[in-house]
Amino acid sequence: MWVKKFIRLILIIFLKPLGYIFFDPQYLRGRYFDKGFMGWRWVLRSILWQKVLGFNRHIPWPVSPFINISSAKNISFDVDDLSNFQMSGSYFQNFSAKIVIGRGTYIAPNVGIITANHKPDDLRAHLPGKDVSIGKNCWIGMNSIVLPGVKLGDNTVVGAGSVVTKSFPRGDCVIAGNPASFIKTLNGNNK
């Protein structure tokens, strides 16, 4: 047991300066780095995939090579939620508007968060982007899509496979379907 802890400590001592060379240090803190080894595993993997092989090279924090983020400057999240960018298949399309993800929000694999649609009469062009805001302590279920301009209030649960076309700013609810609609209110025990 002490050998495992010693090896982790040596790896962290080695990975920390490397991480600071390749990534913005503001993202290399929080629960995955200060209280565990998981964040440093992401750094090790991401140095290879992002910085050497070029997948998501423009992103200043460790991300899975199997997701797509259009613009790092147009996304806001808490560093304790860095796990949202370690899933496979997720798509954060935010080249012309912002995505704000509240603290404690979980985003499952294969989720699409989109800030701009194509123009119906010219598919090579996009409509103007609209910000997407997801509140604190939300859960976006697998294979869901959140469309431009959507605002989800705190404690909103989006059922798997949903297409969220309109806002649910009050939060404290479960929504699901295509298009997503209100299913039920969450009580204080679910927070």
- Count of domains: 2
Major pleated sheet: 5 strands, parallel
Share of helix among residues? Answer: 10-25%
Global structural class: alpha/beta
Rounded mean pLDDT score: 93
CATH superfamily of the largest domain, please? Answer: Hexapeptide repeat proteins
Q: Which percent range describes the beta-strand content?
A: 15-25%
CATH class of the largest domain: Mainly Beta
How far apart, in Å, are the first and last alpha carbons?
Answer: 36 Å
| Backbone shape | globular
CATH architecture of the largest domain: 3 Solenoid
Q: Which fold name is given in CATH as the topology of the largest domain?
A: UDP N-Acetylglucosamine Acyltransferase, domain 1
The count of helical stretches stands at: 3
Strand order of the largest sheet: 1-3-6-11-14
**Using DSSP, what is the number of strands?**
16
